[in-house]
Specification:
The complex is a heterodimer. Chain A is an alpha+beta fold. Chain A contains 8 helices and 16 strands. In chain A, the strands form 6 sheets. In chain A, strands 2-1-5-3-4 form a 5-stranded mixed β-sheet, with helices on one face. In chain A, strands 10-11-12 form a 3-stranded antiparallel β-sheet. A two-stranded antiparallel ribbon of chain A has the order 6-9. The longest helix of chain A has 19 residues. Chain B is of the alpha/beta class. Among the domains of chain B are: 173 residues, Dimethylsulfoxide Reductase, domain 2 (3-Layer(aba) Sandwich); 63 residues, Rossmann fold (3-Layer(aba) Sandwich); 112 residues, Barwin-like endoglucanases, CATH 2.40.40. Chain B has 18 helices and 19 strands. The chains are: A alpha+beta, B alpha/beta. Bound molecules: iron/sulfur cluster (2 copies). One iron/sulfur cluster binds next to α4 and α5 of chain A.
């Protein structure tokens, strides 16, 4: 791979051919403001926040989609750039309600962060022409047009990561909005929601919610299929209030499917078993752990004594951890004394 | 999997068969699509159903259900005839080639076409596509294994891959996609009747001695134990008196529901620990409330053998307890106190007794998982298996004759029923059918039949039908689409009120003991 050398803010940088100016800057530790750019997605170039100046060229260019060239002399900061970025950001904010106090995303919103960074406080807000029927491609996600900055991250994610294209931005100016163009193809994966830089897409699952920064985040592995996606459960008051992902993490690289992202309601379901049960005359009754464990140990011991260890069998589980599976087969082999242990891998 | 998931991006051709990857392994499907759209890889889908992955395929073959050995042998026949095989690899790394070659002689395109229903030209095109690509990856799932010939199917796929030198190389391999989050780990940990953890055979005296010594001089039999299906039959016949179930629901996942029900009801003692009162738990004498994955620490092993952490985020509800605690407490009461009582301590025990997991510690996998085999604490893990050499030395070609499925469509039962999963639900539905989200998307079982068949029978979208097999009958709503071919009906197995295992038969693969969930003969009637 051939390397290309250029100068960014006076620093010499050498990067592989085909990289963008933004990537070259990031690699050098130079921070260029971005909004629509997302490292999991191909460059979009809609927000114009990442503009830079190239010596000898007339106007600024967007660094996210301009490839490096040998000998370029790039400036990422100047008064003119700053002024232009502020104008661009205000343009974006024109249609974005500053309703942060009631927005689910407040606290982890890319837009909020960048607005704060640029110190913008005075923007006239002109709400986009509202149509009240704002059904989204899936009922698990809610669309808030007044928060949408039309950055196209969601559209790009659905297209490039899922290969689907269920949503698109239709219309110009005031009329522009995110529209489910092929709702029947939507897989409810939530890829669009996870890349949205604002609170324009929110999870539409349970009403009892906490703000994102309130939950304790615990990194774990998805409990469903064998892909082993990495995710973070956000827990508040002993309930899961949401699922998050890190873009660089695990085989899933921040993606999840509908089960991993939205399938956590069972955890707090009221029908979870909460106490041991013993059957008496065909009916279950609640029992204490002492009683249930004593009863089980007694029955297993008696059956083992009377009919031998091979009269007892155990089913372990493809949903349990390695440690539990190991312990279970150890129990069957060492304590019961049989190799009759299996699980439903075959089923 | 012999290769990591990310290797899909290195393949020139990806052959998927018996996997509805979009719905059952959505993240792996992302990789397949990225390989196609960004890297220009070619996708070859071989599946009786027109699954959505076909949208991205260069070529799709639709074999009759249960004819996998025939088309695989057919592809190998063409590859040899056209000289596309990796002869050097075959000579250096495999054995049994001459016998296979002789055996394949009769599997001509015309002959195979008659058996499988795949046009001969398509077979030739597929053979060229796979045969010319280096490397090419094969992905398969339960659509290959859930047959009475499942083991034959897998061995045949392995032969196909070896024939083209695709095992032990980056971007190649034969890659089973495992359905549940820790099927791989449950097998690795010795949750099988014939092996201890790390696949150390119980019939091996040395292995028995090693485990018996480590576990305080207990006596462990060398006799291979019973499989799930044998346990159920044993229960019915009175040979098995008690079953202890941790987190499984055979009432829905086993092939013949009546048979399972009868077996479990005949038991003298059934103990079930689970997070919900499942159909199986309802049959129990004692039920223990267990913690779910969000309420405990531990590790799970994904389909690419990657061991990753599970971490506790919540306390279990009410009096529910972690499985480890429950097993320990029963064990203690039976006179065998177990020393290791935390997940991490158990992992240390696994390290000492399981060579392939010896180097996997919580400290090392805190950030990123490790892929077994990982034999010591400095070993980086082994993402690609059989590199340079096969685990057993030489790769073995097997001669596999074609055997038809146990049941086939006939006058009385003219449809073939296939069962499986849908995207929105998981296994027996105990987790995904709680709460509103996933249920809203897919609230009840839908039988997928072709529009053509529906029209013939006067069935409209959303009508209820009765599906009847030699064993039972279920009532289920219809979804007319083009995924099922004519003469085929697909029903997911997540729904206890439309339990497909009332229909399926209990004949299993002689080696893997996997039941034939993909082929049962049924008839369809419009229901009231
Ligand atoms: S949920 Fe997934 S499939 Fe649906 S619109 Fe969003 S990205 Fe596309
Ligand atoms: S998020 Fe979806 S694809 Fe990923 S492990 Fe969970 S169930 Fe599988």
């Amino acid at each position: 791979m051939s390397m290309v050398s250029l100068t960014i803010d006076g620093k010499m940088v050498s990067v592989p051919e085909g990289k963008t100016i933004l990537e070259a800057a990031q690699q050098t530790g130079i921070d260029i403001p971005t909004l629509c750019f997302h490292k999991r997605l191909p460059p979009i170039g809609s927000c114009n926040m990442c503009i830079v100046e190239i010596k000898g060229r007339p106007g600024p260019v967007t660094s996210c989609n301009t490839p490096v060239e040998e000998g370029l002399d790039v400036a990422t900061q100047s008064d003119a750039l700053h002024a232009q970025r502020v104008i661009n950001l205000k343009k974006i904010l024109l249609h974005h309600a500053l309703d942060c106090p009631v927005c689910d995303r407040a606290g982890e919103c890319d837009l909020q962060n960048i607005v704060y960074k640029f110190g913008i406080t005075d923007v006239a807000f002109e709400p986009r022409a509202q149509k009240r029927d704002d059904a989204y491609a899936t009922s698990l996600i809610r669309y808030w047009p007044e928060r949408c900055i039309l950055c196209r991250r969601c559209v790009t994610a659905c297209q490039s990561i899922k290969g689907i294209g269920a949503i698109d931005i239709i219309g110009e100016g005031d009329e522009a909005r995110l529209v489910p163009v092929a709702a029947d193809k939507c897989k409810s994966c939530g890829e669009c929601l996870s890349v949205c830089p604002t609170g324009a897409l929110t999870e539409n699952l349970s009403r009892r919610k906490g703000r994102p920064w309130m939950g304790k985040r615990v990194k774990t592995t998805c409990g469903y299929c064998g892909c082993g996606c990495q995710l973070e459960l956000s827990a508040l008051e002993n309930r899961v209030i949401g699922v998050h992902t890190e873009t660089d993490d695990g085989v899933n690289q921040g993606s999840l499917c509908v089960k991993g992202r939205f399938g956590y309601e069972f955890i707090g379901d009221e029908n979870r078993l909460k106490t041991p049960l013993i059957k008496e005359n065909g009916q279950f009754r609640e029992a204490s752990w002492e009683e249930a464990l004593d009863y089980t140990a007694k029955r297993l011991s008696a059956i083992k004594d009377q009919f031998g260890p091979d009269s007892i069998a155990g089913l372990t589980s493809a949903r349990c951890t390695n440690e539990e599976n190991f312990l279970f087969q150890k129990f069957m082999r060492a304590v019961i004394g049989t190799n009759s242990v299996d699980h439903c891998a075959r089923l | 999997m012999t290769n990591p998931i990310s290797d899909i991006l290195k393949a020139e051709v990806i052959l998927t068969t018996g996997t509805n990857t979009d719905e059952n392994h959505p993240i792996i499907a992302n990789y397949v699509k990225e390989a196609v759209t960004r890297n220009g890889a070619k996708l070859l889908v071989i599946d009786p159903r027109r699954i959505s992955l076909v949208d991205h395929a260069t070529l799709w073959l639709r074999p009759r259900p249960g004819t996998d050995v025939a088309w695989i042998n057919g592809l190998m026949h063409i590859i040899l005839k056209e000289g596309l095989q990796a002869q050097k690899y075959i000579d250096e790394r495999t054995e049994g080639f001459e016998a296979l070659k002789a055996h394949l002689e009769t599997f001509t395109p015309d002959h195979v076409s008659a058996t499988t229903g795949i046009p001969a030209d398509d077979l030739i095109a597929a053979a060229r596509l796979y045969g010319k690509a280096r490397p090419a990856s094969i992905l398969y799932a339960m659509g290959i294994t859930k047959h009475t010939t499942g083991t034959d199917n897998v061995k045949s796929l392995a032969s196909l891959a070896m024939l083209c030198g695709n095992i032990g190389v980056d971007g190649g391999g034969i890659n089973p996609l495992r359905g549940q989050n820790n099927v791989q780990g449950a097998c690795d940990m010795g949750g099988l009747p014939n092996v201890f953890s790390g696949y150390q055979p119980v019939a091996d005296e040395k292995a028995i001695k090693k485990f018996a010594d480590a576990w305080g001089g207990v006596r462990i039999p060398s006799k291979i134990g019973l499989t799930v299906t044998e346990m159920i039959s044993g229960a019915a016949s009175g040979q098995v008196k008690a079953i202890y179930v941790m987190g499984e629901n055979p009432m829905l996942s086993d092939p013949d529901k009546h048979h399972v029900e009868h077996g479990l009801e005949t038991l003298e003692f059934l103990a079930v620990q689970d997070i919900f009162l499942t159909e199986t738990a309802k049959k129990a004498h004692v039920v223990f409330p267990a913690a779910c994955f969000a309420e405990k620490d531990g590790t799970v092993t994904n389909t690419e053998r990657l061991v990753q952490r599970v971490r506790k985020a919540l306390e279990p509800p009410g009096d529910a307890k972690e499985d480890i605690w429950i097993i320990n407490e029963i064990s203690k009461r039976m006179g065998y106190p177990m020393p290791a009582s935390t997940a991490e301590a158990i992992m240390r025990e696994i390290n000492t007794l399981t060579p392939s997991y010896a180097g996997i510690t919580y400290e090392r996998i805190a950030e990123k998982g490790l892929v077994w085999p990982c034999p010591d604490k400095n070993h980086p893990g082994t993402p690609v298996l059989h590199r340079g050499n096969f685990t057993r030395g030489k790769g073995q070609f097997f001669v596999i004759p074609f055997k038809p499925p146990v049941e086939s469509a006939d006058k009385e039962y003219p449809f073939i029923l296939s069962t499986g999963r849908v995207l929105e639900h998981y296994h027996t539905g105990t987790m995904t059918r709680r709460g509103s989200g996933l249920n809203r998307l897919y609230p009840e079982a839908l039988a997928e039949i072709s529009r053509a068949d529906a029209q013939k029978m006067g069935i409209a979208e959303g009508d209820y039908i009765n599906i009847i097999s030699r064993r039972g009958s279920i009532r289920v709503k219809t979804w007319l689409n083009d995924r099922s071919s004519q003469g085929m009906v697909f029903v997911p197995f997540h729904f206890h009120e439309a339990a497909v295992n009332l229909l399926t038969h209990a004949v299993v693969d002689p080696v893997s003991k996997i039941p034939e969930y993909k082929v049962s003969a049924v008839r369809i009637e419009k229901a009231s």
